[in-house]
Amino acid sequence: MHCAEGPVPLAAVEAVRAFLDKELHPWRFSVEEWMDMPRRVRHGAARLLGCHPGDVSLTSSTSAALTTVARTLPWRDGDEVLAPLGEYPSNAWPWKALEARGVTFREVPLWSGHRAGAAAWESAPPPVGVDPERALLAALGPRTRVLTASWVRFQDGLVLDLPRLAQGCAARGVELVVDGIQGVGTLPLALQGVAALATGVHKGLLSPQGAAFLYTRPDFRSRLEPAGSWLSVEEAMSPTRPATDLSRAWLATGERLETGGPGPLTMSGLEVSLDLLAGVGPDAVAAHVQACQTRLLAQVEDTPAWAREAGRLCAHLGHGRLGSILAFHHGDKGAAWLNGVVRRGVERGVYLTVREGYLRVAFHGWHTDDDVDRVAALLQEA
Ligand SMILES: Cc1ncc(COP(=O)(O)O)c(C=O)c1O
Known about the structure:
The protein has 382 residues and is of the alpha/beta class. It contains twelve helices and ten strands. The strands form two sheets. It has a seven-stranded mixed sheet with strand order 1-7-6-5-4-2-3, with helices on both faces.
């Protein structure tokens, strides 16, 4: 269930504990220990995202990262932001909040029978052969300035093809902004052409809550108005230049957009988790997750309650349409039925989650065949 919240590796927990112990005697910290931490975390993030450390801003949540983009982009009255129907609300409200500035937020259904909001449980699941990129690019209008979308969708688990979207957007002068939290750490990422990508660290990145990364493409970032933090200017920590000297230039790097990043306690664990994941690499994690998914689907393909969904998910898997969330649609069984499966899972030490009509099974790099078989046994019982 790392798609809800990922467990923090023991080594990262120990790093947080060690940091907290030092807080009893803060005079024992060297200045370098404090000051160098954001730099190291930016480097760790850049390694995983496949970008330059200067393109990373540190912030506190996916929402904070997306709000930063929405608030600092200079808008014109009548501009439009387009999004797939049923984005996680952290990628809807920052744009909805721009209505007061004359900006419209428009949602696009991605397949026939796609529903969200109050009708989410009546939605048809994404069919085999679904083409969400085509639906989105076809919906771009003359006033569209930004297309924003989740890389991996939180409820149905569909993966969007970011390079294809970025290319289609570039051809129309539209910027692509991505909520990456359900993919980063478990899928290889291609940022080419993406204007901005936001990701919290507490899911696939297996880190403590309270931190997030915002990637921005340099030319896009230069158009965003600086947020105004004292650390967003040149020589902010200079030992010789007075901090009260306000004749400074804004930084061109990601720090330009920071309003205060994660606290050092969170970063002390984050650093370790990032190192651990970068050592394995998203390609290896993705391949392992796919093997777990294939094994699970093979075990439930003949189970009446899941057969149809197993077939649909298997086909999506074959088309590269799934990330680490296997989202089994309820059909017409309803919420109580899915929640019953979750409850029985908890009794057996199997943790699954339900969102908007789907039962979500999320494998990560540490899961074993035995774990997969325990999930299969639970589903076969239902
Ligand atoms: C797609 C997506 N975006 C964002 C979030 C969380 O956002 P935040 O980091 O602001 O809590 C979630 C959490 O479930 C999510 O699934």
